[in-house]
Amino acid sequence: MIQIVTTGGTIDKVYFDANSEFEVGESLLPELLSESNIHDGYQITGLMRKDSLEMDDADRELVRHTVASSDYDKILITHGTDTMAATAQALTAIKDKTIVLMGAMQPARMRRSDAVFNLGFAWAAVQLLPAGVYIAMNGEVFAAGAVRKNLKAQRFERT
User: Fold this and answer.
1) Which of 102, 83, 72, 89 is nearest to 133 (CA)?
2) Can you give the pLDDT at residue 109?
3) 24, 32, 55, 124 — which has fewest CB within 10 A?
């Protein structure tokens, strides 16, 4: 069984025409899981709906506490990409669980989003990797503490 923790981020952004901007909305994760033909074997915990740039140390502590106190040893976290590496680093003290963070560079509601691919890849990664904290994005797995987001290239890379 896998616990999925949602925190918001680009993957869940919705365009509000009246404001001419994107805001984090309700999670599309149940729909994305169904679209990926994943129908059971998980429990979803909606922890927060924030852009990761708005996350602070208290939010990361809430994520850490939620993961540490979970009865599950496999945890998948949806997260905004801008501070995903910082949250991954904050989770490294948890040693007995496989924790995989994932997100999307484009909102899941957009036609050319990487969300479904990233979800499927992270779903496999959380089941196959040994205990530790990882980021699974765009077909690559990165260990926490050895990864950063390259804003210019819009991808993650090893440090």
Assistant:
1) 89
2) 82
3) 124
Give start and end residues of each alpha helix (H) in the chain: 29-35, 57-68, 84-90, 115-128
CATH number assigned to the domain with residue range 2-158, chosen from the 4 options 2.60.40.10, 3.40.50.720, 1.20.120.450, 3.40.50.1170? 3.40.50.1170
Q: What is the pLDDT of residues 91-108, one digit of tens each?
A: 999 999 999 999 999 988
What is the Cα 30 distance to its own chain's centre? 14
pLDDT at 18: 61
pLDDT in tens, 27-48: 889 999 999 999 999 999 999 9
pTM of the model: 0.94
Active site members: 10
